[in-house]
Design a protein that fits this description.
This protein starts with 6 loop residues before the first helix and ends in a 7-residue tail after the last strand. Helix 3 crosses helix 4 and helix 4 packs across helix 5. With 272 residues, it is of the alpha/beta class. The chain is built from eight helices and nine strands. The chain has a nine-stranded mixed β-sheet with strand order 3-2-4-5-1-6-7-8-9, with helices on both faces. It has a single domain, classed as 3-Layer(aba) Sandwich (Rossmann fold).
């Protein structure tokens, strides 16, 4: 039996909000909490990974630690993006300097990412747990945030939705056990441009919840979907257990993706 008045000594910091990496989402009551799982979904090319790296960089400024499992990207690409986000240098400039091994300034600024670690291999759940435990043995605490990029890279097949659901359930249990937030990046299905000739899909419209591949939205407390038109990024909250949600993605927040890979919040509103 659990007496409600004794909750504090049992739950610790489970449910506590992390710093909001994007203020516009925070204003919409979209928060990332300890002991919870979130999903970031979108079609290929919707800047999911770049969005997550911007969130990691912002969290780091507020002493939020992270472990990022980047099975969908290589170290060169991740470092190129992070260097641009942190320094403001355009991506082509960062890449040219990396190719010339003129990287001292980037090495110095990347050192400021305290408690941020990356893995670039495809792991199963037990291997993920092993690496998280290794992080704890080095830093003396578990990471505040764990990112999986991309969900399909951690199961046997892009169509293995049953395995994906099991993995999300395991990750949700892990988040509660170690009081971290787990963020899972996932795909949404591509929509045919001719799906409705009379009422075509608006350019940049984020996917609705039913358009997420496998419809794996049962366990995450927050589900965001993304769509891009050029370097214009729209983000909708289609599930939010503790705040506003729009399952049809009819309301979304606007962002701009800069040439340096920084994501900036749009100053105007388009869809009130």
């Amino acid at each position: 039996m659990y007496s409600p008045n004794r909750f504090a000594r049992r739950v610790g910091n489970i449910g506590q909000k992390l710093h909001d990496p994007f203020r516009s989402l925070g204003r919409q009551q979209v928060h990332f909490r300890r002991g919870n799982t979130s999903m970031i979904a979108g079609v290929p090319g919707s800047f999911k990974s770049i969005w997550a790296l911007n969130a990691i960089a912002e969290w780091s400024r507020h002493n939020v630690t992270a472990m990022y499992f980047s099975a969908d990207g290589d170290e060169f690409t991740v470092v190129r993006r992070l260097a641009g986000i942190l320094t403001g240098d355009n991506a082509d400039i960062v890449e040219s300097r990396m190719v010339r091994h003129d990287v001292e300034q980037y090495e110095n600024i990347l050192k400021d990412l305290k408690g941020i670690e990356f893995e670039y291999e495809q792991f199963d759940f037990e291997e993920i747990v092993t690496h998280v435990k290794s992080y704890e043995s080095v830093y003396g605490a578990f990471p505040d945030v764990i990112v999986l990029d991309n969900l399909i890279d951690f199961v046997s097949s892009p169509m293995a939705y049953d395995e994906m659901m099991i993995l999300i359930k395991q990750l949700d249990g892990l988040s509660k056990e170690i009081k971290s937030h787990v963020m899972v990046l996932h795909h949404a299905r591509l929509i045919s441009e001719k799906w409705n000739a009379r009422n075509p899909r608006p350019m940049g419209q984020p996917p609705a919840d039913h358009e997420i591949a496998g419809r794996l939205t049962q366990l995450p407390t927050v589900v965001l979907t993304m769509a891009a038109a050029g370097l214009h990024l729209n983000v909708a909250c289609v599930k939010n257990r503790n705040g506003k949600q729009y399952r049809d993605a009819s309301y979304y927040e606007e962002f701009a993706v800069m040439q340096n890979m920084q994501i900036r919040e749009w100053s105007g509103k388009n869809n009130d």
